[in-house]
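Kindly inspect this chain:
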Amino acid sequence: MSLEFIGHTSSRSGAEVIEASGPIIDKAYIRHMAHTAEANGFDRLLIGSFATWPDNNQVAAYVLHNTERLGVMLAHRPGFVAPTVAARQLATLDQFSDGRLAVHIISGGTDADQQRDGDFLAHDERYARTAEYLTVVKKVWNSDEPFDHQGDYYRVKGAQSSVKPWRASGVPIFFGGSSAAAFEVAGQHAEVYALWGESLAQTAETIANVRRAAARYGREEQIKFLLAFRPLVADTEEAAWARSRDLLAAAKAKYPATPVLNENVGSQRLREAAAQGAVLDQRLWTEFAAVTGAHGNSTALVGTPQQVADALFEYHKLGVDKFLIRGFDPVPDTLIFGRDVIPLVRAAVARDA
């Protein structure tokens, strides 16, 4: 997998400071977002997973059915279906899409959201379960003969699947999590490690940690890296920063003065970045993350298309070759970024090759 740009779609319109509208499953919106991304240089769309959201497997199938080239990065939480079932579900969807599926493994968001679906395991136990889960999933994909497995979390006898992923290498496994336990599982199983938009120094530190974990499995040179941002792009730098001020004002009006804080390590790291300053490395805007409590991907790169492209290229030089881009105003931001920024980044990477 080479340089990739990944967008995002929900099941209906809305964002942090844009009220959700339309039916909970808005087919017209999903189609529009998918077509906008496909027509403007994106390679995939992330489809998230939360305990209160519609089934993202079905949203992914709809996106893939309504596009020709665009792939999907399907968020998937181990622990709620058997790994043998998940392996067949993912392989089936991959076959229907002619190999356009990637799976993004998330061991747990917040304790509260995990518990809504009945998962009460502690943080490190969730990652231990994920490691075993992925071991079984991969064995289903790779085994031509029935096999048995007995571990700490799963036991199967005579497991076998007649459906395999589109490619012999399997469905690409993306992986999220910023703790030491997450690094260990990523080092063993992930093809792509995903992290939220941190400073250059923080990103270099995380890449080094994950590569050290991967080296223990002989995979140091195999693992790739994805970075997630919320770019604010405008024709002039002044206009881009003016938009950041408008977003910050809207967030302050909507969110409490002391926001609810996510306990996951990724959110903690974004808040640590915000504590270092409102703007880091010239372009990394952290105030939105601070005001909203860093609930997920919430830092932005701010500037003109060339300035944002230059900032992304600095991350590429650290070893990042995949960028997850989610707009504050989803459809128009996807259009602007795809039209004005993606070609500049691709050109810079090609010159550097």
User: Anything to note?
Assistant: Residues 4-230+305-352 form a domain with the TIM Barrel fold (CATH 3.20.20.30).
